[in-house]
Design goal:
Length: 389
């Protein structure tokens, strides 16, 4: 049976726009299209007020003050601004520390930002992770024995859904006197997260919480102040840290998405976890030898990263065109090579190539799960035991 639409189970790559968010955005495309920085007239002031109201909702989601949120185009820009901005400010003020630490399982934009700093005289340190995907705190403690400027760790991994112990990591980082940056793109709206645990910089984005693509934010702690330099020059918007005209429709959508995420996080997580467990039980019974990469614990409710006992994940995807799943990060999914995240967790190339990422979200239905389970089981049988002519 073919569904009326493709079954979308790739909610770690992006989430569908919540209809309530779309409704809130539409008037800012047509009714008031003013530049929010044109505060000389009534339409500009109304747009500015809408952005500030949204900023407050985004801040509330992570326990921050509204003026600590710098609006950006998304988490990739926020991560670049946090890492490169902190490093370049350190150079400007004569800070001698040059070590910048991250994990081998971070998003590409973090890994590349850290590695890019080597050309500017910094020392990139990329720490390994355990087979669970978690950071061994002893590794971090050893790395921090050298004076370090910044540590960047993602709260929730974009491929495996593994949740790091950010509070414990931040405690070590702060004790060493370094800055703590958290890529929280996959975490906000899915787990409880508060910047008061010792976070100096935190990146978030709208399209992972049922908001629009093209807008994100960077939390920059005020007290004591976390200092960063801007990446580019312009009109001095966003406290001089991120110049450029803001898009009221996107920011308003982000604000409502954040408000809904705060209000519905627990109910969403409970329902989504039940759907995930149903899918896992169906597949585990039908396909002996299938395992969850990283194990079933320390994981957000909507993620399954499954390793099949045989075959190829790419062939599985091709065999079920009505189900949208992926082999890894959306930034890397077009690459042929196996996931670098899974390889960093100790999987062989063959094991990584047999792994699928499944992301369940707010708008996934029980019927979607039933269809996906049948499709996955049929695809596995077809691709590992093809019918002979």
């Amino acid at each position: 049976m073919t569904p009326n639409r493709p079954i979308f189970l790739d909610n770690q790559s992006t989430t569908p726009l919540d209809p309530r968010v779309l409704e809130a955005m539409l008037p800012w495309f047509t009714g008031n299209f003013a530049n929010p920085h044109s505060v000389e007239h009534v339409m500009g002031r109304a747009a500015e007020a809408a952005i500030e109201a949204a900023r407050a909702e985004i801040a509330a989601l992570i326990g921050a003050e509204p003026r600590e949120m710098v609006l950006t185009s998304g988490a990739t820009e926020s991560n670049n601004l946090a890492i490169k901005g902190a490093a370049r400010h350190a150079v400007r003020v004569g800070d001698a520390r040059r070590r910048v630490i991250t994990l081998a399982t971070e998003h590409k934009c973090v890994l590349e930002s850290v590695r890019d700093l080597a050309a500017e005289g910094f020392e990139p340190v990329v720490l390994p992770v355990l087979p669970s995907g978690l950071l061994d705190l002893d590794f971090l403690q050893d790395a921090l024995s050298v004076p370090s400027l910044l540590v960047s760790v993602m709260a929730v991994n974009n491929e495996t859904g593994i949740v790091q112990d950010i509070a414990a990591i931040a405690a070590l980082v702060k004790a060493a006197g370094a800055l703590m940056h958290v890529d929280a793109a996959q975490a906000v709206g899915k787990i409880a997260l508060d910047v008061s645990c010792g976070i100096d910089l935190m990146s978030v984005t709208a399209h992972k919480i049922y908001g629009p693509k093209g807008v994100g934010a960077l939390y920059v702690r005020r007290r004591p102040r976390a200092r960063i330099s801007p990446l580019f020059s312009g009109g001095n918007q966003e406290r001089g840290l991120r110049s450029g005209t803001l898009a009221p429709p996107l920011v308003v959508g982000f604000g409502l998405a954040a408000q809904l995420a705060a209000a519905e996080r627990e109910s969403d997580a409970h329902r989504i976890a039940a759907l995930r467990d149903t899918l896992w039980q169906h597949l585990r019974q039908a396909i002996p030898g299938m395992v969850q990469n990283g194990g079933p614990t320390h994981r957000i409710s909507g993620n399954l990263n499954l390793r099949f006992p045989a075959g190829s994940a790419q062939r599985l995807i091709q065999a079920m065109p009505d189900v949208c799943v992926s082999t890894g990060s959306a930034c890397s999914s077009a690459e042929i090579e196996p996931s670098y995240v899974l390889r960093a967790m100790g999987l062989s190339d063959d094991e990584a190539s047999r792994s699928l990422r499944i992301g369940i979200g707010r708008f996934t239905s029980p019927a979607d799960i039933d269809f996906a389970a049948e499709a996955l089981m049929s695809a596995f049988a077809e691709t590992t035991h093809p019918i002979q002519a």
